[in-house]
Each structure stands twice: as structure tokens, then as C-alpha cells.
Amino acid sequence: MIPSVLPTYSRAPLSFVKGEGSWLIEADGRRFLDLGSGIAVNALGHAHPALVAALSEQANALWHTSNLYQIPNQQALADKLVEHSFADTVFFTNSGTESCELAVKMARKYWYEKGQPDRTDILTFDGAFHGRSSAGIAAAGSEKMVKGFGPILQGFVHLPWADLDAVRAALSETTAAVLIEPVQGEGGIRTLPDSFLKDLRALCDETGTLLILDEVQCGIGRTGRLFAHEWAGITPDIMMVAKGIGGGFPLGAVLATEAAAAGMTVGTHGSTYGGNPLGCAVGCAVIDIVMAPGFLDGVNRKAGLLRQKLEGLVAAHPEIFEAVRGQGLMLGLKCKVAAADLVKAGYDNLVITVPAADNVIRMLPPLTITEEDISEAVARLEATATQVAAA
Ligand SMILES: *Cc1c(COP(=O)(O)O)cnc(C)c1O
């Protein structure tokens, strides 16, 4: 008999009843150090007092009105995002997938309005993850994601990861945009070199092609800047955001320049829940905290500490680990044993990591993790590696 919850997930036998900062607690009191943050969602950890206050206050005042009316904290959050980024304008969604949908629509509409309706192709890359909608799976294009779900949305051209020559060769008079993650998350914590992003921006400029960045996982302070592309000193035309921006409340956004958004006029797009008062109250609190003086400096300091300790772990267990990769507090350990076995053994040692493609375990701790908890987490990973090595 089919389970009452559609069985699309492979779930670990863990069940949490409470979260406190970087800790997740089961009903029996077992305390796990959380290096997963619900896949980069709980950017400020669990039950951050400022987020609890923002959500409670809004919950007591007003939950939902629809986008038929003005929503003051949606306006406030858009203003904050515009102030702190390349963007001139923001549309709010409820998830990364919905942000992908709009990014693709916006890019195609841009060319349509320019009188070039044949410019519809989006160039994407191996190992990409952009969500599970028809556009999201078509963008990723992997057999695993699209098989059985045809007909697949047309107009995506799949290229090898970080291959500039392949981009150059693929750009044509039908290309609307290039879509890429500055740091691949699901794909195994693969970081684009700054030089690649710079060259890609230049290629897009030469050909008028729009550059869409998917910062759903790597954005909102994760790499030590508000957005990962800032390290390369470039800006996109369109950017997808979600995960960390809501700190655990479902919230996403598409940020764009005025030029790229030119086709998105009244009636061309919408969302029932997108930018609702609850989500935007929390989003405002998240941005205020991440942009507070010193916060990102702290992320970078802690990222340096975690990376250094993980390098030590790799050196101590060359039979288990190959290398550390990633940026900021978005780090991966490339494994020599099955990454899934390490994640599972981590549960025995009360430390949570997240598996990714390319046999990598991901570490995406809350940006608020303390140095003490970083040391404890790596000690637990050490015990985990020792356990797997002995097995
Ligand atoms: C998680 C993720 C998505 C999809 O986000 P959902 O909120 O699950 O729809 C898209 N792109 C990237 C890079 C992601 O990590």
C-alpha cells in the first residue's frame, strides 16, 4: 500500500522536535550539531530570537492579503534587496523553483519585447540544480531528473561545467540567456573560478546575452558576501534567490536590473503567496542581521576556521577524504568512501551533514554557528571518519 505521504523522499530515521541555534534536538533529548541548516535554509540557525519576534509580531497582526493590495513589508524587503545588490527591482516567490520559472520567463520576454522572439534558448551546465518544475528539470537536463516526465520544456542547451569555450561555441542568435550557479550545491559544492564569471560576463556583454545567476543556495551570506558573485566583481542581469532569505520561512525572490525586467509589465506574472506579510517580515529581519556591520566579517572568520579544521581532517584521514572544496560556510568534503555512508555514520556521532553529487558531503552550517560549535562539529566528524575507517 502506498504510504500516506507520497514516497518521493528517502528519509533518515531522525525526527526533531526542537531547534536551538546550531542544534537540533530529538524527543528523547539527543542533541545533533546541525551542519546542514535544512539545506542552507536556516541561515541564522534555529529559533533565532529576532526571527521568532518578527514572525510572531506579524502573525498577531496580519497573515495574508494577496497581491491585490499594497504590502508594506514586501516593499520594505524589496528596498533592502535593491539597496544591497545590483538589482533595480524584485519579484517575490515562495521557493527556488518558482524563482527559476520567473527567471526563464523574464529572459524570454525581454527578447520578445525587443522584437527578437526567436531568442529563447537558455544555456545551462552539467551538475546544475534549478528546481523540480518543468523549467527546472529541463534546465538541469540530467537523465535522472527528466526521465519519464516528457514532453520536456524546450529551449535549454546543456554545456560542460565551467567551460568557457563551450559557452562561446554555443552562443548564437537564438540564445536568450546563460543560467549558472556561482557555487553548485546539489552538484557537489563546485565553485566557479572568479575568472570564469568575469569572462562569462564579458561574453554575455559582447553578445547582449542575459546572465542569470542561481544564488538560491549560495546567496544570503553563505559564501561570506551577501551574494556569491560579489567575489568576482561582476553583476548578473537576473538572479534567483530563495532558501536562506526566509531563514526557514518559505520565501524566494527574483532580482533583476531595470533593463532585464523590461518585459514584465502589469499582468505578465503573479503569485498568490509570493511576498506575503509573514514571509517578508522574516525576510526583512534576515537581511537586517546579515547586513549589520561585522556580521559577514564574522562569517568569513568562521569559514576560515572551519576550512582549516576540515583540511586537518582530510590530512588525518586520507583513506576517507580526498579534499575540501567550496567557499565561505558552503563547504564540501570530496570522499573516497561512499558519501552516504559518512552522512549516516555522522548521525551515530550526532553531527548532521548533507550528501551531494560527485560523492561529496556538504557542510552548510548556520551562519551564526559559534567557533566552539565548529570545533565540536569537526571533532564529531573526526569520530565519524574513524568509525567508517574501522568498519
Ligand atoms: C534548492 C535549490 C533550488 C530549488 O529551490 P526549491 O526552494 O527547492 O524550489 C534551485 N536552485 C538551487 C541552486 C538550489 O539549491
From TrEMBL:
E.C. code: 2.6.1.11
The cofactors named for this UniProt entry are: pyridoxal 5'-phosphate
Q: Could you tell me which pathway this protein works in?
A: Amino-acid biosynthesis; L-arginine biosynthesis; N(2)-acetyl-L-ornithine from L-glutamate: step 4/4
Q: Which Gene3D superfamilies match?
A: Aspartate Aminotransferase, domain 1 (3.90.1150.10), Type I PLP-dependent aspartate aminotransferase-like (Major domain) (3.40.640.10)
Return the cofactor note field. Answer: Binds 1 pyridoxal phosphate per subunit.
Q: Which InterPro entries match?
A: AcOrn/SuccOrn_fam, Aminotrans_3, Aminotrans_3_PPA_site, Class-III_PLP-dep_AT, PyrdxlP-dep_Trfase, PyrdxlP-dep_Trfase_major, PyrdxlP-dep_Trfase_small
**Which subcellular locations apply to this protein?**
Cytoplasm
Binding residue positions for pyridoxal 5'-phosphate:
96-97, 129, 214-217, 272
Q: Please state the protein's primary subcellular location.
A: cytoplasm
- N6-(pyridoxal phosphate)lysine modification sites are 243
- Give me the reactions it catalyses: N(2)-acetyl-L-ornithine + 2-oxoglutarate = N-acetyl-L-glutamate 5-semialdehyde + L-glutamate
Instruction: Detail which positions bind N(2)-acetyl-L-ornithine.
Output: 132, 271
Q: Which GO terms describe its biological process?
A: L-arginine biosynthetic process
Q: Which PROSITE patterns match?
A: AA_TRANSFER_CLASS_3
Q: Does the keyword Cytoplasm apply?
A: yes
Single GO cellular component term:
cytoplasm
The alphabetized UniProt keywords are: Amino-acid biosynthesis, Aminotransferase, Arginine biosynthesis, Cytoplasm, Pyridoxal phosphate, Transferase
Outline the subunit composition: Homodimer.
The family line of this record is: Belongs to the class-III pyridoxal-phosphate-dependent aminotransferase family. ArgD subfamily.
PANTHER family from the entry?
AMINOTRANSFERASE CLASS III, SUCCINYLORNITHINE TRANSAMINASE
Q: What is this protein called?
A: Acetylornithine aminotransferase
